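Troubleshooting log. The previous structure file for this entry was overwritten by mistake, so regenerating from the original sequence record. Sequence copied from the archived sheet and checked twice against the printout by T.R.
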Amino acid sequence: MISKTTPPVIESGRLRLRSLTVADLPMTLAWRNQDAIRKWFFHSEIISPEQHRAWFESYQEKDNDFVFVIEEKRVLQRAVGQVSLYNIDWEKKRAEFGRLMIGDSEARGLGLAQEATRILIEFAERELGLREIYLEVYADNLPAIAVYRACDFSIAKTQGGVLYMVCGSDALGASGEFE
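Regenerated output below.
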């Protein structure tokens, strides 16, 4: 099992995913509050530094919520975004994927969101033994949907302008329905 006291570092050819730290909060808050990014979050209001810090303190206490900072290692050589696995149900071996954003404007359009998604899903399946990863995305967020489809997510259902997508060996569970 993964823990915040011994967080993993996940690497691919050009990316490193490392755990979010308190030092990252100003950067991630600035990314999250960009109009072009926050419009895709279900809670799309501007977040204050105090709200972000309070969220982080609560996050630190959870053993089923892991935020990773995406670092590009070759060209930009800096943090460029974030991605998360959360609502992890260790018993059912499933988790929610999300909070994906490429906040650094120079890093957009380079395929980093797709690569980060792919390596985090592979880590979740291989190292954590998760059999199902699911997410929710606005049906009109076509760039995100393209990333998710390229990483083997499929649409389980659509409701109220939101797609529910799943991937993994137990993607639709025994009942064949999205929970």
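The mean pLDDT is 92. Archived copy saved in two places this time.
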